[in-house]
Amino acid sequence: MCEGLYDKVLEFGTLNRGDWLSPSSSGKCTVSMEENSQCNSDSLLGNFTHIFSEDSYDVGCIRLEPQKVVLTSELAVSLLPYRTSPQNNIEIETQIKRVLEANIIKPSHSLYAAPVTLVKRKDEGRRPLKKH
Prior knowledge:
Shape: extended
Helix content: 25-40%
Protein name: Retrovirus-related Pol polyprotein from transposon 17.6
Number of helices: 3
Number of strands: 4
Order of helices and strands: HEEHHEE
Oligomer: single chain
Organism: Nephila pilipes
Largest sheet: 2 strands, antiparallel
């Protein structure tokens, strides 16, 4: 299961020959490292901190080509929002504000509209879910 991975990781200098890989019960490979290998991998990660996101809204965006949505009808679909509690409404507004500030989405004045509701996460938080 981990065959070939060891040599691939060695190529990038994050493991030494004394380290070993073993398959876990989930089918993924786990790494046991010697102390100097851990220092090497920490150093490598430290050199590239700028490419890792700091939170779930720090994902960046790439706008290489304008997107087109081909419609089958000229009739705009506009659905009414779902009723939510004042507490959930505040949470929805807060999360929308965060993704706007992160430039993940941008304001729109389209005739199209879809309702949003909150869905529980495993970590007991909530995330917005847009119904299409």
